[in-house]
Here is the input.
Amino acid sequence: FKNLRNLIKNNKIILTFVALFILFVSYLLLPTFYNQIELSEKLRSELLKKLNLNFKFSKKLNYNIIPKPHFTISDTEINYKKEDLSNIEKLKVYISSNNLFSLENIEIKNIELENANFHLNDKNFNFFLELLNNNFENQTFKIKDSNIFFKNLDDEVLFISKIYKLK
Here is the structure.
């Protein structure tokens, strides 16, 4: 206990831990300083390359570090063969925290769609088949609290299917 008291009295250890904590948090906050336009283009191209999905971001990207570093984009659409297939209320793109110093080195780990509405018909039904055939090697793709609207060619809803949690 005497040694412990001496260590506490000596503020070097406490200051070292505080400095390391500040450096770690600063490292995690680096993506907040990226250019929004370049970042959205980079994320769009990575999502197209990895998932073969063409996302259309309509609003600003928000960066959060809790629970894991990720970008949250609201009001997003998925285009499939030049047609709007889905309206997504919240898209979360989780990124790897291994190398955050450069925008070019950002690696997408997981994708999560929340409150999405998928509009399927005979023309774009292959979307889900292609999505299920994708190879999700190092990432997961989740859909939460979403709806699938099956429509006929006259754009009338035939039936609705609810997705509570799909991984």
Observations:
- The first helix runs from residue 2 to 9.
- Strands lie at 54-57, 61-64, 70-79, 84-95, 108-120, 140-151, 157-166.
- The chain has four helices and seven strands.
